[in-house]
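Form 7-S
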Amino acid sequence: QVQLVESGGGLVQPGGSLRLSCAASGNIFTIYAMGWYRQAPGKEREVVAIITSAGRNNYADSVKGRFTISRDSAKNTVALQMNSLKPEDTAVYYCYADVEILADIVRYRAGQWGQGTQVTVSS
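Output:
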């Protein structure tokens, strides 16, 4: 009932930049937090950055100072600007949204995930 569609992944050289975007659509009553997670081969999924509906953000220590998360609440979108990319940033990046979903006259809250977009940092 809610879809998250990511875009912007790809191959980039170390030190380069990429911008990921994610748009949420569907039976959305309101979105609380939005953010980005990533999962590298053989590793567990980890949080990269989160931004709340109030605009507060948190970053993983490994990306602080290099990544910037932003959000357009009116459009239900979130973006991740990634600069100074390193090979260890290589992973599948997933968009996440903490959503209150409207189903007929019932509302319920659930975490929603995008399909993931590959980011590869390599020379």
